[in-house]
Amino acid sequence: MYVARLSLTDYRNYDSAELTLGPGATVLVGRNGQGKTNLVESIGYLATLGSHRVSGDQALIRAGADAAVIRALLTHGDRELLVELQLNRQGANRAQLNRSVVKTRELPRYAHSVLFAPEDLAIVRGEPGVRRRMLDELLVQRTPRLSGVMADYERVLRQRNSLLKSARARGLAADRLPTLDIWDERLVALGSEIIDQRLALVAELGHPVAAAYQSIVDADHRPELRAVLSIDGADPDDELGTAGRVVSAGERIETSQPGLDTALRAYSTDDTASRFADALRALRPKELERGVTLAGPHRDDLLLLLNGLPAKGYASHGESWSFALALRLASAELLRRDSTTGDPVLVLDDVFAELDRLRRQRLAEAIGGFEQVLVTAAVLEDVPEPLTARIVHIDAGRIVEAGADA
């Protein structure tokens, strides 16, 4: 699959924009702040229903406008699909497929893309929420119905937290909150599915991440991914997410090491719901004291390891950057493997400026087989020559045809 045409109306700094694209690589080049990232961000939004730069939609709507519109003509073989999304300042967003109204959460079923940007360094160095979001966005692209499961879980979580806060304010004991059991059942049912889906995804990502990492750095640093589950006792306030045990300097976490903390064990998904329910019962006094739900997929983390050490805190800048990029490339491989509509669109937003010459070349080789690759760069010389077959200049929200002067 590739994006044949992209149209924007009142999106970011574009009052109106039309960009014709095709298979292969296209470089969007221009000075910082001209709107290169805005273009690729819009494509990513269709696939994930979110921006990699902001958490809400309001910043995506041009100042003074009531709504922004993203239109993309997707092509796979002889089939074309027009995807349209309207982001509204007031009211719900609206979506269409070939001019027929659909639910917005249906869009990831048709638009597949993987975007890597400088912000992705936070996947390795940032807070657990960034890693959870990475997993969930990939899950929704692979299984769109999970967006509904996640939305339902968030609603139940808000209701449960509201009840806990109310009980704390009123000084109620656990035995005087029978309605909490009802919310617990719903939370466990929805949360267990999310946990199991994430665990399966983490297992699937293992080999593709290792292969992608080695293709970029040409070294075996043994990248590993480990789920850290709050329902099994992981302390959500533990910075390194190692189940209440801080890893000391130089300590390596071995897969075969006996007596590992529960948060680092290999998990069986058979009893997730019972473990979740047990955790909620055990944590109820503390939850009533704090007024917040302390176990569930909203409190989990993903531990990233290089050579047995947590990448967060021990990996160098270059290693962290390569690990984050490997995670995105592995995600693209999974989407490519599963999709019936061809490769996902691969987007590299200002990536090559952060890499040395050798890693630029190796990355260009690693992505050469994808059907469509979109690259943004402030300096064209940063982009390896094999990816510069088509160049589009961006200047102050204006798209200049390939080969023309910006």
TrEMBL record:
ATP binds at G30, R31, N32, G33, Q34, G35, K36, T37. Pfam families: SMC_N. Keywords: ATP-binding, Cytoplasm, DNA damage, DNA repair, DNA replication, DNA-binding, Nucleotide-binding, SOS response. Residues 2-377 form the RecF/RecN/SMC N-terminal domain. The keyword DNA-binding applies. InterPro entries: DNA-binding_RecF (IPR001238), DNA-binding_RecF_CS (IPR018078), P-loop_NTPase (IPR027417), RecF/RecN/SMC_N (IPR003395), RecF_2 (IPR042174). It is found in: Cytoplasm. Its main location: cytoplasm. The keyword Lipid biosynthesis does not apply. HAMAP family: RecF. The RecF protein is involved in DNA metabolism; it is required for DNA replication and normal SOS inducibility. RecF binds preferentially to single-stranded, linear DNA. It also seems to bind ATP. Belongs to the RecF family. This is DNA replication and repair protein RecF.
